[in-house]
Amino acid sequence: MPNAMHVLQKAKHVRRCFEMTSPQPFLIPPRRFEAHGGFLSLPEGAVLELRASSPQVMAVRLMEAALPKGTVRRYAYQERGFSLTLSAAGMQRVAPEVMPEARAEGYALAIQPEGIAARAETEEGFFRLCAFLGRALQSGAVPCGIVSDAPVKKVRGLMLDVSRNRIYSVKTLLEVIDKMAQVGLNRLELYFENVFAYRRHPLAWAQTSPYTAADIATIEAYARARFVRFIPNQNTLGHFERWLKLPEYRCYAELPQGGARTPWGSIQQHPTGLFSADRATRDFVRGLLEELLPCFPHASSVNLGGDEVFDLGQGRSNPADKATLYFDYMREMADVALRHGKRPELWADMLIRHPELLSEAKRHLPEARWLVWAYEASDPLEANVARLQREGLETIACPGSSSWRSFCGRTHNMLANVHAAARSQSDGMLLTDWGDAGHWQPLTVSFPAIAAAAALGWSPESNPDVAAITDFLLGERGLGAWLLRLGDTYRTAKAEAGNATKLFQAYNLPLAASPVFETEALQETLQLLDDLAAEPVISGSRLALREARFALEMQRLAVLRAQRTPHLRRIRARLAAQLEQLWLERGPRAQLDDSLSAFLSQELPE
Question: I want to staple 430 with a disulfide (CB 3.0 to 4.6 A). Which of 93, 157, 196, 459 is the partner?
Answer without folding.
Answer: 157
